Amino acid sequence: MTEQVRPMEPDEPAAEDPTSDVDRRGPTTTGIPAVDEAIADVDRLDETPLEEHLEVFERAHESLRAALDARPGDDPGDSA
Hints:
The protein has helices at 33-43, 53-69. By secondary structure, the protein is mostly helical. The protein has a domain at 33-69. Helix 1 runs antiparallel to helix 2. 4% of the residues are buried.
């Protein structure tokens, strides 16, 4: 069974943007250098040629995965 989506009526208020409370005036920091660097790389995508975006996302994914897999006290930036 497929779910049918009812079109929004013109007088209905739009759904609230879940990111509207996010402060976009400054850089996002987590205190974890490898994660902060990955976030900064993705934040700079506007300045990066489109053909390099995939590489940036792949590098960020690897860094974030390493940070998630790290044991407490490990340096997630270490790949050794």
